[in-house]
């Protein structure tokens, strides 16, 4: 999982909670879990139609 995404989400959580001190690890773990679930849902749903079109274009299909 991308550390940058986790850091960004943990920062959002920190701000939403009023920037409390001493909860960095809690926010990091919550962000990691949220993003992991998000990634799992995306895998279950499969690629978005625009992603399929892009993959087709990138592979040279239709040339």
UniProtKB/TrEMBL annotation:
Residues 34-63 are annotated as: Disordered. InterPro entries: DUF2934. Keywords: Plasmid. It holds the Pfam family DUF2934. Residues 34-53 have a biased composition (Basic and acidic residues). It comes from the Bacteria. This is DUF2934 domain-containing protein.
């Amino acid at each position: 999982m991308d550390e940058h995404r986790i850091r960004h989400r943990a920062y959002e959580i920190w701000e939403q909670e009023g920037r409390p001190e001493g909860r960095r690890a809690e926010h990091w773990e919550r962000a990691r879990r949220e993003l992991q679930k998000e990634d799992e849902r995306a895998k279950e749903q499969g690629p978005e139609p625009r992603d399929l079109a892009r993959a087709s274009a990138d592979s040279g299909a239709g040339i």
